[in-house]
Amino acid sequence: MRQTVVPNIRFKDITQEVTRIVALSEIHEGIVAVQTLHTTTALIVNENEEGLVENDIPLFFQKVCSEANYAHDCVERLQTLPQEPANGAAHLRSIALSRGNPSVSLIIANYKIHLGTWQSIILYDFDPDDRPCRTVIVQILGNHQ
Questions:
Q1: Gap between the Cα atoms of 7 and 61, Å rounded
Q2: CATH number for the domain that contains residue 74
């Protein structure tokens, strides 16, 4: 994961990993679904341009969804859940970026993921300090030629 200009927001371009998995599947035409298993992460398909992914997107979420005191972070609640961090902002950022959807689905055509010229599959982690390891799963449906 790469650090952004905003503390506690990291990202990783996972396009190459997903592309490799699709190639190994030998699926000619189909769909690949990529899903994060965490409620404080988000998957998007967008341009992996440094100014955008390292600065603009994180700064946008810092402004729109600050590290304020959220009900999720209530001291009384956290006392009853010792393993739960104060990460209300991370949940809200994930919901906003992913639209509440933990996955992205992409078309496979001619053995390759069909992406536009500037499109990449990017995983954002809004709570990396509390969760150092993240899991993303890939499911491929389709036809062999």
A1: 12
A2: 2.60.120.460
**Nearest one of 80, 128, 121 to 103, comparing CA atoms:** 121
Beta bridge partners of 32: 106, 140
Number of domains in the chain: 1
Range of the domain at 104: 2-143
Six token digits for residue 40: 């404080």
Q: Give the number of other CB atoms < 10 A from CB of residue 86.
A: 17
Entry pTM: 0.93
Contact between 18 and 138 (Cβ < 8 Å):
yes
Q: How does pLDDT run across 32-85, given as a tens digit for each residue?
A: 999 999 999 999 999 999 999 999 999 999 999 988 889 988 888 888 887 888
